[in-house]
Amino acid sequence: MWSIIRCYFLSRNRDIYRDVASEYHTSALHVYRLAHGKRGRSNRDYYILKKLKEQGVITLV
Questions:
Q1: Cβ-count burial 22-61 (b if 16+ within 10 Å, e if not)
Q2: Would you tell me which of 8, 12, 40, 56 could form a disulfide with 45, CB atoms 3.0–4.6 Å apart?
Q3: Quick one: which of 19, 38, 37, 39 has its CA closest to 28?
Q4: Distance of CA 12 to the CA centre of its chain
Q5: Is 57 in contact with 35 (CB distance < 8 Å)?
Q6: Residue 61 pLDDT
Q7: The pLDDT value given to residue 1
Q8: pTM of the predicted model as reported, rounded to 2 decimal places
Q9: How far is C-alpha 53 from the geometric centre of its chain's CA atoms?
Q10: Are the CB atoms for 34 and 8 separated by under 8 Å?
Q11: Distance CA 54, CA 56 (A)
Q12: pLDDT score, position 11
């Protein structure tokens, strides 16, 4: 768990993760984990992944 938090703080996309998280009322760490391969389980997760794709953070959805 600590390695995930450490990687989040070292990420160049940290501001994007925060913006998307505040838009969808979730944590930035949750958005970070979705961007790095965690499976989306709800409609909100799908919209977060779609937003990250639009922003150019991820390539496949």
A1: eeeeeebebbbebbeeeeeeeeebeebbebbeeeebbeee
A2: 40
A3: 19
A4: 12
A5: yes
A6: 52
A7: 63
A8: 0.87
A9: 10
A10: no
A11: 5
A12: 86
Backbone angle region of 23, left / alpha / beta, with phi > 0 → left and psi within -120 to 50 → alpha:
alpha
**Tokens at 18, concatenated:** 């925060």
What is the spatial distance between Cα 61 and Cα 52, in angstroms, rounded to a whole number?
9
- Write out pLDDT tens, residues 18-41: 999 999 999 999 999 999 999 999
What does the block give as tokens for 5? 């938090």
Largest CA distance in the chain: 29
Query: Domain extents for the chain?
Result: 2-55
Give the C-alpha separation, 8 to 42, whole Å.
Answer: 22
Alpha-carbon gap, residue 38 to 32, rounded angstroms = 9
